[in-house]
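Page 37, top half.
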Amino acid sequence: MLVAYGPEGQSVVAEETPLEQLQQWSRERMLYCPNCRGSVHVRGGPEKRTQLHFAHQKGECAWSTEAESVRHARGKVVIANWLREQFPEGRVTLEERLPEPNRIADIYLVHADGRRWALEFQCAPLDVEEWKHRHSAYREAHILDIWIIGTNRREKQEAFIEAILAMAHEVLFLDPQVAPPQVWLRWPVTREVARQWERDTAQAPSLEGWVGRLGYGATVRGRLPEVRLGEHGQLLHPVRLTLERRTRLLNQMTTAVSADEALLVSYLRSRIDGYAVQQVIIPLLHAYMRDPDLLRRYNYGRGQANHAPTEDEQARVQRARQWLASLAQQGFTRERLHELAHDIPFVGPYASFARYIEMLIAL
């Protein structure tokens, strides 16, 4: 266990108390189990290369959590510190015994506004029915339970992981034994969304096969400090947020009646630098919207059958050539313009705009 009671009944956290003080209290038998009130001793520490913790004499307490792995003990400390950084006004405790739902929460957070969250770091095998029982018990006690899974279970217990995905629509795997702690965020996506990412997104996450009837399991890897908890306990990872935002924009663009400048700029923001957008994309979009059929009518200078290009059309195309030449002087070569055209999503009215750019480059 990571928490004990001290000489005056105060809560003592192993990692947050000087080792010399803990050793003195341990020798004087002044540390007590917060559950059974039996005497405990300090164990581990840097010299022994194990997580600093408190231990009963063997078999002394029915509530004992001492048979835990180093990964589990370390993970609880890592998660508690992660929560304290995000919610400095909340109260974060380790191994909090909760009369309702009659459990010891690995990490317990009470927000300033009274909301209560219990975070469980699961490294040992857990039956799906038992997990459902614990989940329901927390919710009946009006406590939001958030489950983080040790990386030792990442490739195991598919049914258990799927149960969490079905209920919470996301799951976080944590390796707390590296610095900084590494995480894998997994959530279900539909087959169609997976296809969009594969053809459109350079940052596409890995897809780990079908997740029941939910879709593919999308996974992004990162560091724990990059992840934040939202107001309702949802896991906020910057890559996931970018992907989901772009998916929403792409869906809007697919069903749009005409090309929209603000929508296109929002979509390209994470792909193209602002200078290229202002100097190339927006002027091209304005030209396209003014006369989307110009280049097809002009037909690369040949005109259409029985219809020669007008003087005005010839003048406009000549100005387009001059503009392309000026762009080349700014570093926007034909190759660079092709790259920009490929960043335009080939959906809805934007597909025609992408073709327009390609035709212009061909001049």
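Page 37, bottom half:
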Amino acid sequence: MSAPPRVMVLTPQPFLEWRGSPLRVNGTVHALAELGLTVDLLALPFGQTPDLPPGVSVHRPPNLFRRASIPIGPSAWKLVYDVLLARLAVRLATRQPYAVFHGIEEAGWLAVRLARRHGARAIYEKHSDPVSHRGGAFKNLALHGYARLEAHMARTADLVIATGPGLARQVQRLAPAAPVHTIFDVPSSRAEPAPERVAALRERFCPDPGQRLAAYAGSFAAYQGLDLLFAAWPEIVRQFPTARALIIGGSPPEIAARRATLAAQGLAASVHFVGPVPPDELPDYLAAADVLLSPRGAGVNTPLKILD
């Protein structure tokens, strides 16, 4: 019997990290393995490698600069590690044949180049709206260049995948003839909430029967709209003194900065920060809340938290 087709999946992001795009990549490689394909997943040298099915292997470039992570969105460090990822991809592509090169976000450009060089097919997968990452002069300049790159990827890939209809429309405006398919995200966990764990969390965050809990789950990236939530919180507490907020996600420095602001407003006791939680525990936290929050500052892509 001949060997199963081999696919190279290129993700210019940490793997696995607790946010939408890496979680989707994890689901993608599981689905490809279930189809009987052999998958080489190339990812940045950050995050924790989860349990993966047979036929899936993870490859990472060396962490030459010994960084623990890089910020979400365009940055000089992102460019550096993208280059290291590209060098690894070129090296692997010369060692064995691939049927498909599947590039996430800007790695779609690399997928197209490798596919054309090695007689394979190329997929470009779009996860985010560039408007979400607008900021300082460097970011805006990088996004201007990325717009041209994205148009090239959309026109030259054999297939484009978008995670929502808004992103699919963006691709169609850039390349009207491009074959675009929308494949929605799935929730980050298939676990069901356990009543005993939900009750324990409820007692932890709202020990008084009259308290009400509003929960947010996600990163602290600017496009998520957390500034809107925290700007509104003093007025919410003024009108509803029993309101409590549960914030799931964020790094220790990000959490510390938010806590300091709330403390200065005299609101520290009304907001609970728990940092990231394992995906299979997230349903318990969401079920313990009375209100689920999804503020949004920019972008047309569907937030994963909506599906959760």
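Margin note: The two ends are 41 Å apart (CA to CA).
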